[in-house]
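In response to the reviewer comment on reproducibility (Comment 2.3), we provide here a single inverse folding case reported in full, input and output, so that an independent group could reproduce the run without further information from us. The structure tokens appear first.
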């Protein structure tokens, strides 16, 4: 095959005979000894292998290395090293947002992109107002990080770590804005308590309760 050049963590790597079936994850781990990205499920379901491609998060186990000639690829090593942690990495330490740490590189890569998405007012699947998304809600953070699984169940502390950095970033963005804004999305405080969505059974019980209320209202002449 033709020569392939990849830019990973601001460094260029050249390959002459790379098997075109090589995933980006395997190239980093097996060919370049960039072992921060982890191979978890190898099916794009756990998020342990998350990297940034031109600032967007991707599952590197599902993308071929040959697809990214000319792209800017960032792994956890490019976000920060032990002697120079990023704000988000330091927040993970401060809030004890990991136990075994296997999923942490993917969590931090994903959260790094998440913060930029929120700053750009991108909506998520649970956003109620697509024109004015409020990415500072805990429910929003949980949804946006749902592609990264933590088997140690450190989710509450992961949310706290992301919230700490996100609040600071949004506050700085608001302070630097020359136009006063009053939308909810400019609030610099993460709010809410995350809980899973209601089950079908719960929704069914809720419907039954509403029906009983309607029947009671009819029995009372329309008054409750």
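Designed residues, in position order:
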């Amino acid at each position: 095959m033709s020569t392939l050049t990849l830019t990973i963590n601001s460094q260029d790597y050249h390959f002459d005979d790379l098997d075109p079936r090589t995933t980006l994850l395997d190239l980093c781990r097996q060919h370049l000894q960039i072992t921060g990205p982890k191979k978890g499920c190898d099916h794009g379901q756990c998020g342990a292998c998350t990297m940034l491609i031109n600032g967007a998060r991707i599952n590197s186990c599902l993308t071929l290395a040959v697809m990214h000639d000319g792209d800017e690829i960032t792994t956890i090593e490019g976000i920060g090293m032990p002697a120079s942690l990023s704000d988000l990495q330091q927040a993970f330490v401060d809030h004890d947002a990991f136990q075994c740490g296997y999923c942490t590189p993917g969590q931090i890569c994903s959260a790094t992109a998440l913060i930029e998405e929120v700053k750009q007012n991108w909506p998520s699947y649970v956003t109620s107002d697509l024109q004015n998304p409020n990415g500072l809600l805990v429910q929003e953070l949980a949804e946006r990080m749902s592609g990264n699984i933590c088997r140690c169940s450190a989710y509450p502390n992961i949310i706290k770590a992301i919230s700490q950095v996100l609040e600071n970033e949004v506050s700085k963005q608001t302070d630097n804005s020359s136009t006063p804004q009053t939308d909810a999305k400019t609030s610099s405080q993460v709010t809410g308590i995350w809980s899973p969505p209601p089950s079908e059974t719960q929704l069914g019980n809720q419907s039954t309760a509403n029906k009983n209320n309607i029947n009671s209202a009819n029995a009372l002449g329309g008054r409750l």
